[in-house]
Amino acid sequence: MPQPPSARPSSPTPLLSLTADTLVAADFRPRSRHRPPGPYRRLLSTPGARGFTIGNLMARLPMGMFSVSAVVMIAGEHGSYALAGAVTATGLAATAVVAPWTARLVDRHGQARVAMPATLVAALGSLALLLCVRYDAPAWTLFAAYAATATTPNTGGMARARWAHLLKGRKDAAGALHTANSFEQAADELCFMLGPVLAAFLCTTWFPEAGTLVGVVLLVTGMLVFTAQRSSEPPARPHPTAKAPFRVPGIPPLLAVCLATGGVFGAMEVVTIAFADAQGHRAAAGVVLGLQAAGSCVAGLLYGAMRLTGSAAHRLPWCVAAMTALLTLPLLAASLTGSLPLLALTLLVAGMATAPTMVTTMTLVQHRTPEGRLNEGMTLAVTGLLGGIAGGSAAGGWMVEHASPTAAYGVPVTAAAVALLLSLAASARDTAPGSRA
């Protein structure tokens, strides 16, 4: 019996059509959710940034290799950490004198014209040191050869100068420059994390001179790649009109802080190598030092992604205070337990306050350096660090020889405490009414 029209089921076609229309009207199609790029992705998307960053990282990696390679090479041949520390201290002290002049030439004549010849001279100095150690030359030749490496350009300073040039004029220039400084500090720590590990591995697995040889190859190759990126190079200023950075009132107090902070790095390197060697694990020294740099690298990246308030001059003492407090952990670990794994863990934690201290310091240096002399200003800061590293290396080596590697961990703590006092004095001056922060 046929059903009445009202009772008949509706045909499937209108139902499907209605369903499709409803779905289209409701717009249930999946939508792609694109997160906005993070600060580091935005930074590296700057035209010309990636090219010079790759070359700079290659040229910067040997900076974490040369001193460790020299210490292992010299101490293994001559059996004296005091001699090894004195040789590396001499090279760093020579760099502290020569580097500002090299940086001034870079500002006046351009990075490509000056950096590459200076790199070749430094590479020859490293090779000369290798030959002197290899063929048992007199001790004075070690000092002379390592001093010749003082012409090594400040790769980190040149990279920071390029960032300042590329980011100039942007609406978010201040925030982007903070991120760039944090990125470069993390790159420094990455190189000082991988460099000692690679150097210790090469010197102990292959032959003592292998770390220096590989470092020379990386330095020359990386500088060739870096200087080939001409589009991001800051313009040369043959006749700068601004006063020298060292004569700017706010710069010398920062250089004093850098000097004391460098003492932390120099002492920690020599003392940790000696501590590991005393326990029969010299090859592990690079890994232990690398963990300290790893903590600093992670902290630097996190610090760069933060939106900070207040002046950098106000933040600096807090950063240095955190560094001083955390550096007591390796001293306690070495004194109370003598355990190398526990020491490595405490160095990882202690390193987390290093990068924020350096980023804040470099930011202040950039703000206060006159235009056209940025590379010179940044190099002066690095020169202060190198001078401190030289003193810290010598003091650490002396304490190892005349006391013990355990007692020598008091040297970096003392250097950090001095840096804290200097930063407090500088902050009090900078935050006074009428001063520049």
TrEMBL record:
Pfam entry (one): MFS_1
Transmembrane segments: 57-75, 81-102, 114-133, 139-161, 253-276, 282-304, 316-336, 342-365, 377-400, 406-426
InterPro entries: MFS, MFS_trans_sf
Keyword Metal-binding in record: no
Keyword set includes tRNA-binding: no
Keywords: Membrane, Transmembrane, Transmembrane helix
Protein name: Transporter
Organism name: Streptomyces ambofaciens
